[in-house]
Every structure is written in structure tokens, then in C-alpha cells.
Specification:
- It is a single chain.
- The protein is mostly helical.
- It has one domain (about 1-165).
- About 80% of the residues lie in helices and about 0% in strands.
- It has eight helices and no strands.
- It has helices at about 1-5, 20-35, 40-65, 75-95, 100, 105-120, 125-130, 135-165.
- Helix 3 runs antiparallel to helix 8, helix 4 (about 75-95) runs parallel beside helix 8 and helix 6 (about 105-120) packs across helix 8 (about 135-165).
- The longest helix is centred in the last third of the chain and has 35 residues, at about 135-165.
Length: about 170
């Protein structure tokens, strides 16, 4: 069971760039959940992926002897869901039509920013990545997701406050 969770049901075996594949699959599932009327599945999924990741990753690492194998992608799932939660919750609370979450900026920006922060590993992301064991595996992606969510909302604020009125 820990292998299924750690590899996100085998998505971690997709090559190349298993983390990017897992993030893309996560975005697709989040968009589908939102459009099906299950917007809160995104932040709930984040909590579940985080809890399950902290449970599964140490077991997987012990079983395989790895430090941060590329097939472990539950951390990317949790981080990507955290980044998307910043977009989903305001839309859901304000009754924005479902189609808007399907519009590219609402999900592409958190996806691209999450991948950027996960690969670049600035500041706290990099510090967490240097931690040993499951804590390091999980925390760097959670920090990347937090940064991606905050920056996405900043971009949305600039767009809606500056660019959109200028275009209109």
C-alpha cells in the first residue's frame, strides 16, 4: 500500500520527469473535481495527500533504501494540490462559474510556478530539500506549493486589478 501511495498509483514510473507528470495528472484531477462541483476536494485532497505522504514515504524509503527516488511523487501531488487550493477556494466561495477554473490562468499559473519552485528550490524549499528522509522529501514540495499558491494569487491580483481594467 505504501508503494501505491508513494508513487501515486504508479504515476511516479512515468518517464521522463515523473514529478512533472504527477503534477500534470494532479491538475487534471483537480480541474475535473472542480467542474464536477467538488471544489473542496482540492484542499481536502491536499490534506489527505500530505498525511498519506508522511505515512507512505518513510516506509517506501526503508523498503527501497533510497533517499529521494524519482518514482516517489506523492510529495508533488500534495504540493500541487496546495498551490491549486489558493485558486479553488476563492472561486468556490465567490460562486464563480465552473468554466472559469477551466480557463488557463487559474490552473496553468499554479502548475508552472509549482514546477519552477520545485526545480529551482529557492530559500525554504532548498533548505527543506536538504533535510534527510521523508521530512525532506515532503517538505520541499509543500514549501514549493505554498510559494506557488501565493505568487499565483499575486499574479491574479495584478491581472484583475491592473491589466483587466486597462483592457476593458
Amino acid at each position: 500500500m505504501s508503494t501505491l501511495i508513494a508513487t501515486f498509483f504508479g504515476a511516479g514510473h512515468l518517464k521522463p520527469a515523473s514529478g512533472t507528470w504527477a503534477s500534470a495528472i494532479t491538475v487534471a484531477l483537480a480541474v475535473a473535481a472542480y467542474q464536477a462541483g467538488w471544489a473542496l476536494a482540492v484542499p481536502v485532497g491536499f490534506v489527505l495527500a500530505t498525511i498519506l505522504g508522511f505515512w507512505a514515504v518513510p516506509r517506501y524509503l526503508r523498503a527501497t533504501g533510497g533517499e529521494d527516488p524519482s518514482e516517489v511523487v506523492i510529495d508533488e501531488v500534495a504540493g500541487q494540490l496546495l498551490a491549486l487550493s489558493f485558486t479553488v477556494i476563492p472561486l468556490w466561495r465567490h460562486g464563480v462559474p465552473d468554466i472559469l477554473f477551466g480557463a488557463w490562468p487559474a490552473w496553468v499559473a499554479p502548475f508552472l510556478l509549482f514546477r519552477l519552485f520545485d526545480i529551482w528550490k529557492p530559500w525554504l524549499v532548498g533548505r527543506a530539500d536538504r533535510m534527510e528522509g521523508a521530512k525532506g522529501v515532503m517538505l520541499d514540495d509543500l514549501w514549493a506549493g505554498l510559494f506557488a499558491g501565493v505568487v499565483s494569487m499575486g499574479f491574479a491580483g495584478v491581472y484583475h486589478g491592473v491589466v483587466e481594467p486597462w483592457l476593458g
